[in-house]
Amino acid sequence: MGIYTASEKRYETMRYNRVGNSGLKFPAVSLGFWHNFGSGGNYENMKELCRTAFDNGITQFDLANNYGPAYGSAEENVGRILREDFQPYRDELLIATKAGYDMWPGPYGNWGSRKYLIASVDQSLKRLGLEYVDIFYHHRMDTETPLEETMGALAQIVRSGKALYAGISNYDKEHTEKALAIMQELHCPCIVNQRRYSIFDRTIEEDGVKEACAKAGMGIIAFSPLAQGLLSDRYLYGIPEDSRIARDHRFLKKEALTSQRLEQIQKLNQLAGKRGQSLAEMALSWVLRDDGVCSVLIGASKPEQILENVKVVENLTFTDEELKEIDCICENESERNGYKYEN
């Protein structure tokens, strides 16, 4: 199926979920650009990944100013792809980007100041070749900058038309609730919190963020739902030479794949098989099993991975017994620090 197929066909199988109490809907599966879209990637493959995603109803492309490497290169590559392939489809796409991590030298290229965030969105728009992004996130909490300043900058960005909605990422319960209170006073739509969430990392349940967002009418989009690939068939039998653990130790370390973790992965894979799913499909289904999460962010290096992951919407239901079995398999969690928290 090519990119120029009739619009209604690409939306036939995807599920779209409302983002909190807002009027916006996210596809159940969104495409993340954290990896594989930097300056060292294959441009034609990047283009094919975007085409495959969009052809299968994935309408959200999720970026950040420092995605690469090098910093900014993911936005530059996506900007080129948007110009070459997607100009007629801008209004069918959600383009999200973020700022909050180290981006340029000096005291103004990091964290959450008004100076940094407003400069960042201007730079991102130039790299993307867009007049606006649909969602602009503050990428992480900054305890040294008044939250009123950070939220005020997000509100100004929305009011200026440079973003349609504001979001936050990696915010804990306390800062989520404070941020929402400030944005409500500013009458600015801050609609989503982007957090890590997977069968292997349930921090948003334990720190109360999932419950707090549901209570406040704020959506959650989950990143790393496959635990950097651990919740896939990639590591069922150890560490392949071409795997992320073997090639890139920045985000997923060899220490993460202990014998205990490997046993958990193999047991989960057996359960997935009983459900008629791959391990990756079941892991994504688990994150989307209730209304607490409106979308999962997937990464991909091959179009085939996207095609597998979009099948998750075919089976999002778990029996009580299946959920108990997953909890039983994972009850002795002790290795959550095997990969980095931020995205």
UniProtKB/TrEMBL annotation:
Q: Which UniProt keywords apply?
A: NADP, Oxidoreductase
**Superkingdom, natural source:** Bacteria
Which InterPro entries does the entry link to?
K_chnl_volt-dep_bsu_KCNAB-rel (IPR005399), NAD(P)_OxRdtase_dom_sf (IPR036812), NADP_OxRdtase_dom (IPR023210)
Protein source organism: Candidatus Limivivens intestinipullorum
User: Its Gene Ontology biological processes?
Assistant: methylglyoxal catabolic process
Protein family according to the UniProt entry: Belongs to the shaker potassium channel beta subunit family.
One example of the protein's molecular function in GO is: oxidoreductase activity
Record keyword NADP present = yes
Q: Do the record's keywords include Oxidoreductase?
A: yes
Q: What is this protein called?
A: Aldo/keto reductase
Which intervals hold domain NADP-dependent oxidoreductase?
29-328
